[in-house]
């Protein structure tokens, strides 16, 4: 697809990179005349005045300023992308989906996006949406930009090459990519590709605090990879599709906006290989809260209550003694959307497939299905390795609402996962 792409290592670092020698100004951001007639442009990912550790911005040196564009008009395609959630009141049922067999065919990444779950409104600057995509063709002479939030892209099948204003990332199933709010990008595929996208309207995802875990563990900063500067010099019409305030808009430029020759700053795309996650769990007894598996978190205004936690369930050893080892039965004030990239999830013996989705909204009783419960209750508790699996959860304090597309396709019999438990026998 492309030559080996180059990356810089670290999470939230202050990077600098130039694709043409001398393009990046030294010692200042906005010289009177940037080199080669480039335009200096600041992209702010946080308000100017937030504390330093929350401050995110990058300076881009580009061939034309972003400001040079004609008015946007409504985009007619991608009818299933951000259509609004279902109108009817949502019953407090657990919901689960097989991978939908009717995701858009012959579509690119934008037209192949299908929103399943959402909460809040993008203009609240809080909340998260969960989309599925099916991309069969590469985006051709068009780019996408999301003003409503950052996009965490999780390929489930098919490799993606994502060309962004900051550089190019290749992302295979088992890795994830993060495109910050407001960054333009194009997705290229090599045949049919499917996956998930979590769109975060709130504070940018960051690494969780580690508390008593200490200074290493879970996702380590050095394993995040940000692309080096790359640009294309194309004087040909390029469509820009922008998601803004929950709707899709289009305008056409007479050039490619992926024309950033150099940049510096700490607001940039990155990718992360999920196999690098240093999974930590119980080495004594009991199954810890799943927060131990948090890879990235977007805080809300309430300390400890996430706007969105991105949590993964990777291969791991289970050694806890006198313990029911799979996820326990529970009811949660947070709302849990789960997907599966490959393998099987230890709480669900069947019905939760790679590419599928489940929703356990606030206070809904869930946990192991009957078969998983029986197996785990009867298992001999020798050390056992859960292998060949990668499930994930987007857990949020804002209850999710499904779209009509999602409601119409929910498994009709999901409740059966929990029927047939034998009643406890009292002495
Ligand atoms: O519901 C789920 O499967 C997710 C989950 C996993 C776990 O290990 C503990 C709690 C929890 O909600
Ligand atoms: Fe749960």
Automatic annotation (TrEMBL):
Domain Homogentisate 1,2-dioxygenase N-terminal: 6-274
Presence of keyword Heme: no
Named cofactor requirement(s): Fe cation
CDD domains documented for this protein: cupin_HGO_N
Gene3D superfamilies in the cross-refs: Jelly Rolls
InterPro entries: HgmA_C, HgmA_N, Homogentis_dOase, RmlC-like_jellyroll, RmlC_Cupin_sf
Residues of the Homogentisate 1,2-dioxygenase C-terminal domain: 275-423
Superkingdom, taxonomy of origin: Bacteria
SUPFAM superfamilies membership: RmlC-like cupins (SSF51182)
Pfam hit, one: HgmA_C
Keywords tagged on the record: Dioxygenase, Iron, Metal-binding, Oxidoreductase
EC number: 1.13.11.5
Family (UniProt): Belongs to the homogentisate dioxygenase family.
Name under which the protein is recorded: Homogentisate 1,2-dioxygenase
Organism whose genome encodes this protein: Sphingomonas limnosediminicola
């Amino acid at each position: 697809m492309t030559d080996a792409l180059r990356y810089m290592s670290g999470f939230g670092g202050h990077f600098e990179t130039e694709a043409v020698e001398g393009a990046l100004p030294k010692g200042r951001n906005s010289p009177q005349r940037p080199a080669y007639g480039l335009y200096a442009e600041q992209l702010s990912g946080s308000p100017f005045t937030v504390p330093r550790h929350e401050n995110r911005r990058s300076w881009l040196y580009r061939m034309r300023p972003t400001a040079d564009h004609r008015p946007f008009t409504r985009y007619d395609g991608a009818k299933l992308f951000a259509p609004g959630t279902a109108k009817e009141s949502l019953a407090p049922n657990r919901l689960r989906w097989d991978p939908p067999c009717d995701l858009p065919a012959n579509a690119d990444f934008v037209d192949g996006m299908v929103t399943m779950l959402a909460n809040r409104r993008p203009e609240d600057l809080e909340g998260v949406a969960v989309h599925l995509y099916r991309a069969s063709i590469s985006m051709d002479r068009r780019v996408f930009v999301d003003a409503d939030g950052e996009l965490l892209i999780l390929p489930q099948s098919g490799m993606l090459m994502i060309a962004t204003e900051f550089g190019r990332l290749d992302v295979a199933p088992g890795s994830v990519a993060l495109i910050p709010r407001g960054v333009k990008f194009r997705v290229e595929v090599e045949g049919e590709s499917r996956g998930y996208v979590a769109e975060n309207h709130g504070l940018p995802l960051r690494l969780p605090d580690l508390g008593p875990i200490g200074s290493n563990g879970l996702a380590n900063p050095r394993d995040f990879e940000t692309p080096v500067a790359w640009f294309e010099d194309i004087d040909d019409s390029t469509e820009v599709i922008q998601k803004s305030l929950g709707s899709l808009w289009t305008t056409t430029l007479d050039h490619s906006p992926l024309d950033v020759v150099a940049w510096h700053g700490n607001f940039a795309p990155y990718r992360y290989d999920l196999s690098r996650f240093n999974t930590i769990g119980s080495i004594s007894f009991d199954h810890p809260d799943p927060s131990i598996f948090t890879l990235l978190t977007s805080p809300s205004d309430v300390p400890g209550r996430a706007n969105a936690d991105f949590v993964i369930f990777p291969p791991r050893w289970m050694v806890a003694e006198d313990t029911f080892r799979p996820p326990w039965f529970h009811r949660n004030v947070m709302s849990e959307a789960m997907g599966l990239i490959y393998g099987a999830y230890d709480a669900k013996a069947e019905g939760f497939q790679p590419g599928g989705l489940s929703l356990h909204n606030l206070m809904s009783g869930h946990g192991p299905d009957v078969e998983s419960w029986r197996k785990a209750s009867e298992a001999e508790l020798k050390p056992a390795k859960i292998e060949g699996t990668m499930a994930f959860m987007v857990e949020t304090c804002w209850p999710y609402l499904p779209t009509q597309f999602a409601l119409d396709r929910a498994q009709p019999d999901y409740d059966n996962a929990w029927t047939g438990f034998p009643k406890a026998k009292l002495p």
